[in-house]
Amino acid sequence: MRSDAGKKRSETMLISDADRNFIMNKYHRQDEPFDPFHRWDYHGYGFDPSTGLDDSRMKAGLEELRESTVGEPHALIKAKGFAYILDNMRIDVSPNDYFVGLYNWGRLLNEPFVRKWREEALREEDKEFISLMHRSGAAEIWLDVDHFVPDWDQLLSLGVPGLLQRIKRVRDGKTGLSPAQSAFYETMIVEYEALLRLLSRLADFCKKSESPKKDRVLAALENIRDGAPKTTLDALELMYIFFMVSEYVDQFQARSLGNGLDHTLRRFYYKDLADGTFTKDEIASFLAYFMLQFPAIGHPQGHPFYLGGMDELGRDTSDELTFLILDVYGELDLYNPKIQVKINPDTPDGLIDKVLKLIRAGKTSFMF
Fold first, then answer.
1. What are phi and psi of 81, to 5 degrees?
2. How far apart, in Å, are the Cα atoms of 118 and each of 68, 146, 188?
3. What does the longest C-alpha to C-alpha distance in the chain come to?
4. Which position has the higher pLDDT, 51 or 140?
5. pLDDT per residue over 289-318, tens digit each?
């Protein structure tokens, strides 16, 4: 059994107390009351006002955009709103974090666009039924169309520039597109171009930073701006940014982190170790900073990711990285994100035993 002193050394290696405290105040001030069911109504530490708009000015700009786009397809209007937020949001790269800060994360497209369109989509009898359920306390009902699972393998294989090029190539190879089909492609192009501009803004801001983490963060931002991620940190940075802009700007809940976090990161992890880019301890530290973003956000149901499973030939996929992720999770003493463990007849007993030990130690956000 590991001694208390050994455990303390390991946790110190993963993340400093100062950095952990900083991240936990990134989205919500820990010394202020917090309602997890309205978690996006908050801001944490202050961002430099010169980097972008506050929420009130952002909302005003979105209202002007709504007035100027009346009659356009909803998806394209929403994409333009998405781009407006990314182009004008406040940003930060902190000495205390490997992951960037996005200030305007409060689902600002909801009021001017999404909520109105949801109301328009409901029939009067639907509205009456929903109102009755709410008044009686029997149920809370709403039009829920915002859960999705990104194709993480494609995102990390092609990168944002590669996906954008593929969209344009497919569109340009088609003839006789209807207005709705043309808008479909334009919507994606508008959003991916906006994401690339955001990555450029973040990289430029990072260059001015005096952070001891600057070189690594800047390399990651430039890599994912210019192409597909090359390292484990690149991959984690892109996953985090893509998650944030999907869930809290575009309002699509990205209910996974990788197609199996271990599976998605595996090729980066082993390449980094083989090339000497990062050590196992350094990658463990990146995983710690990454996972801490999610309790800081405070999703009321917890954010899920899964480990293990089988490949297309039915072989168990758990390996060294699976165990490393569990080690980091256990040492951080987290309940969020929550981990789904995929098991099969060939799942190693050691993996199941490890998860059960974590559960017995009070780390109970696991599902088999």
1. -65, -40
2. 20, 12, 21
3. 69
4. 51
5. 999 999 999 887 789 999 999 999 999 999
